[in-house]
Amino acid sequence: MTNIDYDLMLLLSGIFGILVISSVIGGLLAFRYSGERSNATIDNLNARIRGWWMMCIICVVAIIIGPIGSVVLFAVMSFFALREFITLTPTRRSDHEALFWCFFIFMPIQYVLVGMQWYGLFSVFIPVYVFLFLPARMALAGDTAHFLERAAEIQWGMLVTVFAISHAPALLMLDIPEYKSENIKLLLFLMIVVQMSDVLQYVFGKLFGKRPIVPNLSPNKTVEGFVGGILASVLLGMSLFWVTPFSWWEAGLMSLVITLMGFIGGLCMSAIKRDSGVKDFGGIIEGHGGMLDRIDSLCFAAPIFFHLTRYFYT
């Protein structure tokens, strides 16, 4: 089980304190406008808050269980994210065996490697061995219709929803001097900055947004929201330097990289949804859509953060 020290307790208390305040505000708003016909925004806000409660409680349980709990949690997240991704991409009956390998063999192996802290194989298993195996298996099925498109979509799904996401719990394997047994805080730092960046960009966009940053792709994302959300997230990351092995300015730089990569990840996932003609990848999380809607930023942020930390701090 993870040893919850004072710093970790303080961090978790802050997270749940914010949730309590948000719940109170959401409840007051719902009571204040309960007589009005249109309060969809408030209903959506409260649904999102309930979703955050659920996700935070699950994360705390995983933290208490220890590193294995965190690995299992992210493996489950990858499973649902890959399922949502594959649902939106065209596959054929001949692809079913390749998909079986992805869901029930390759994905578990990837997370077992993370749990074993086998960096040498974890870092190449999917981008090399799985990458080569999948088209070979699909070719043996003899179905040539849209072969390149189908193979690329399954490969990209594995890279984004499994390989990239697995870098988040892989932070627990890093051997950082003078930071022994504290890596769970590094994982929380990544998750907080990534998720709050999404929230803050949304808030700044609603309050001040005028100019869409990519109007044909995501008209709700604005230049003002992007700039305000990124700057606020960097300041947040700097304020949390005490739970990381970074100095305050290093935490700020790391936060900047995390938020920029998260923004790019969100844009790429939005492009997939727009191409598929859907608003959300799914509906598994109340108020948030699908699993992939919630972790789209993490897909791009986690690998970069992991390798920067590993290169400069281990």
Automatic annotation (TrEMBL):
It holds the Pfam family CTP_transf_1. One of its GO terms (cellular component) is plasma membrane. It comes from the Bacteria. One of its GO terms (molecular function) is nucleotidyltransferase activity. GO terms for biological process: peptidoglycan-based cell wall biogenesis. It comes from Xenorhabdus hominickii. Keywords: Membrane, Nucleotidyltransferase, Transferase, Transmembrane, Transmembrane helix. The chain crosses the membrane at residues 6-31, 52-78, 98-114, 121-142, 154-174, 186-205, 225-244, 251-272. This is Phosphatidate cytidylyltransferase.
